[in-house]
Specification:
It contains seven helices and ten strands. The strands form two sheets. It has a five-stranded parallel β-sheet with strand order 3-2-4-1-5, with helices on both faces. Strand 8 and strand 9 form a beta hairpin. The longest helix is centred in the middle third of the chain and has 23 residues. The protein starts with a strand and ends in a 7-residue tail after the last strand.
């Protein structure tokens, strides 16, 4: 039976690789990489650096082209489902062509495979079609959320209070009910600007050489974050940012 590791490699710092992940890389025969284009070459570069550092000499690296998708769709859910299916077809083709019986393959996932990543769902979609068989194991990694909190030296939750992880799209619809601490990912529209009295702990390219951090009352730092984010995205061709938005909790009875 073929096996695939889904390996979380952390938010960008090579030192974030766990011992479990390093051992899995060392056991892998075939690494599957999806090329996201020249603007995201740094994402490929980190993966290749980790492969060189921890893999065995006989390993193979195969690449496929990551399908394009509409970044501003009218039907967000449908667009993502279509993109995920097209992506699963690319990965399935790579597995069928390059992974032999009894071999181990690996997909190196930015951050943690269980937090805002589609790899697990893609592998389940491949298995559900029934034409390609394998078993797989998920190895956790340090997410950008954990790395952000560490960089700002904060805890994500407060005593006795929950927090929620959501997207900029959802935050733009309103502050989530029942929480005062909201971690936001995938916010292309800077939805935090609608909450000037909240505190924000923001970071882009967290744990990489290009890391940018900012924090403070939204009313005081929003313009700085928006300007910095725009300039960074133009410079790199892409941006990966995350933030914690925190408002004052109501007094406890």
């Amino acid at each position: 039976m073929r096996k695939i590791y889904v390996i979380g490699i952390g938010a960008g710092d090579p030192d974030h690789l766990t011992l479990q992940a390093a051992k899995a890389i060392g056991r892998t025969d075939v690494f599957f990489l999806l090329d996201k284009g020249e603007t995201k070459q740094s994402l490929i570069d980190l993966r290749e650096r980790l492969i060189r550092g921890y893999s065995h000499p006989r390993k193979r690296i195969v690449e496929g082209r990551d399908p394009d998708r509409d970044r501003t769709p009218a039907d967000y859910t449908g667009t993502i489902a279509d993109w995920r299916t097209r992506r699963s077809q690319v990965i399935e083709g790579l597995i069928d062509e390059h992974l032999g019986d009894g071999e181990i393959g690996a997909i190196l996932v930015w951050g943690d495979p269980s937090l805002y990543d589609s790899t697990i769902a893609i592998l389940e979609e491949i298995l559900a079609r029934g034409a390609t068989t394998f078993e797989y194991e998920v190895i956790p990694g340090i997410s950008s959320v954990s790395a952000l909190a560490a960089k700002h030296r904060i805890a994500l939750n407060r005593v006795g209070r929950p927090f929620q992880v959501t997207t900029g799209r959802r935050l733009a619809e309103g502050w989530p009910d029942g929480v005062d601490d909201v971690v936001v990912m995938l916010d292309a529209q800077q939805a935090f600007t609608a909450y000037p009295d909240a505190e924000i702990y923001w970071g882009a390219y967290v744990s990489t050489e290009d890391e940018i951090l900012a924090s403070g009352r939204v009313a005081d730092v929003a313009d700085e974050i928006v300007t910095t984010r725009t300039a960074a995205r133009e410079r790199h061709g892409w941006i990966m940012d995350t933030y914690l938005l925190r408002r004052s909790a109501p007094p406890q009875a």
